[in-house]
Amino acid sequence: MDVAIVEETDNPMLHRTDVTFELTHDDATPSRLQVRDSLAATLNKDANEVVVRNLDTKFGMRKTVGEAKVYETADAATEVEQDHMLDRNKIGVDAEESGEEAEAEEA
Predict the structure, then answer these.
(1) Helix or strand or coil: residue 3?
(2) Most exposed: 41, 59, 68, 78, by fewest CB within 10 Å?
(3) Mean pLDDT, residues 66-81 taken together
């Protein structure tokens, strides 16, 4: 899977960069989490700082165009992004699950 950055727009008010990228893949369209991890590796960022908003693959093509928001920190992402986007990108899930497990152990 090859990731090419098409456009980057800086958004200092929200502590993020809006990225449009093009993804070339050999097999079926990769999952959102695979794309997030590949994009994070390309941009030298932590995966929890990247939120993939949109993936668009044309029928029969091996090329996907997508949009992502790349935050300066994972905390900035959790403050700005909507809950359903955080759930789709599995951001903050580990912290919530460990908190729920700790509460279950205490009870």
Answers:
(1) strand
(2) 59
(3) 93
